Amino acid sequence: MRKPNFFSKGSPFLAHPLLTPERTNTEIDFLLAQTQSTPGHLILDVGCGPGRHSIELARRGYRVVGIDPSEAMIVAAKERAKEAGVNPEFIQAHGEDFLTEYKFDAAICLFTTLGQINDDASSPKINNHPLLNQISQVLVPGGPFVLEVPQKKWVVNTLKDSDHFGDDRNYTDIQRAYDPESNILSETFRLVSPGETNQFFLRYHLYDVDEIHIFLNNAGFEVLHTYGDYRSAPVTEESPNIVVVAQLER
């Protein structure tokens, strides 16, 4: 039985309070500097979600294709792009299955896209590492690629079993569980409002720096830089994320 995925219609991700325009601009500034992209370049946004990076890139004069397996995310991305007056192309597709005649000048893959697990219990997707191989097939030789994932050590060390946000009438409860054998983090989001309760589920693998480097090398990428955030800080135990800048081997 398929559970309501975190990226389904009505997801709290669509109204995440921390995903501000200021944060988006900081991230895009970093991505463009690291990939040395210039307006007019064609950029692939893998796991684009509701399109916040794709839309900002399009605002700045880039040609963008955003892909995401979630119909709800693609619908939201198209609506938000229309409101912003830009026209990136959004396609509902899994990164590991994406086929195109395009050759992209650069690619990005952010948040928890790498490591996502399908919540269809009848056909669980153990991992989606093949998406890195697929990205390598659609990049130009020497093309830059930026990958962001949560850092396993930081997530495990700071993990809270539960969180509660809101008031007595409108609130969100979050339950978390980590399996150290599989390195899978499971999160259940319970959204409660008067007369309505919804649940969303998110499951993904956690990785350390060495694992990410191996995955990229196996997919034909050369790792250029590894950071702990979008301000080029080094990775430490206090870094919530791993941000890797790589280049497709020529």
Automatic annotation (TrEMBL):
Coiled coil: none annotated. Pfam families: Methyltransf_25. One of its GO terms (biological process) is methylation. Keywords: Methyltransferase, S-adenosyl-L-methionine, Transferase. One of its GO terms (molecular function) is methyltransferase activity. InterPro entries: Methyltransf_25, SAM-dependent_MTases_sf. The keyword Transferase applies. Residues 43-143 form the Methyltransferase domain. CDD domains: AdoMet_MTases (cd02440). PANTHER family: METHYLTRANSFERASE (PTHR43464), UBIQUINONE BIOSYNTHESIS O-METHYLTRANSFERASE, MITOCHONDRIAL (PTHR43464:SF19). This is Class I SAM-dependent methyltransferase. It comes from Candidatus Desulfolinea nitratireducens.
